[in-house]
Specification:
By secondary structure, the protein is an alpha+beta fold. The chain has helices spanning about 1-50, 55-60, 75-90, and strands spanning about 60-70, 75, 95-110, 110-120, 135-150, 150-160.
């Protein structure tokens, strides 16, 4: 009788735990799928940037996004961000090439994530219009991304530029 009661208890426990295990596994695959989608969104942004396409670059942002660049200048909304990139790509970033490497993704909710990325840029000129070649630039991108209609978009963009080290 004890053996049967033990088997029955085990069976009930396993049956009760099964949906929880499936739910947990599905949550992990969703997080994994979302992490892959976020990495693809970063790649899409980088590709649009490297094609010097302000409209495609701005399309990576939500309608009400905020962008703060390395100089602390801010733009609000996709329209301003589009204009910002149009100006940059017509000027000192017209030959720039950026590589971005995702360092960390932290999900704040299933639809919001913090993304830390390293970036390197070559081909930029001095912003003062002097047409002076700038050596490789490196920095950090901190983004808050939101999942909107199944697509991950940048809602907050903070870009920092690491100080260049003087030649010795």
């Amino acid at each position: 009788m004890t053996w049967t009661r033990g088997k029955a208890t085990l069976a009930v426990f396993l049956l009760a735990s099964w949906p929880l295990a499936i739910s947990s596994a599905q949550g992990q695959s969703t997080t994994s799928a979302d992490a892959a989608a976020i990495k693809q969104a970063v790649a899409d942004f980088t590709d649009a940037f490297n094609r010097h396409d302000p409209h495609s670059t701005a399309a990576c942002f939500s309608e009400d996004a905020d962008l703060t660049n390395t100089r602390g200048m801010s733009n609000h909304g996709r329209k301003e961000i589009d204009e910002h990139y149009a100006s940059l790509f017509a000027g000192f970033l017209k030959n720039a090439h950026r590589a971005v490497s995702v360092r960390n993704i932290r999900f704040l909710t299933p639809e919001k994530a913090l993304v830390d990325s390293d970036w390197e840029m070559t081909g930029s000129k001095a912003p003062d219009g002097s047409n002076l070649d700038i050596p490789i630039r490196k920095g950090l991108l901190d983004w808050v991304m939101a999942k909107e209609n199944g697509r991950w978009l940048i809602t907050i963009f903070h870009e920092s530029d690491f100080p260049s080290t003087p030649a010795r």
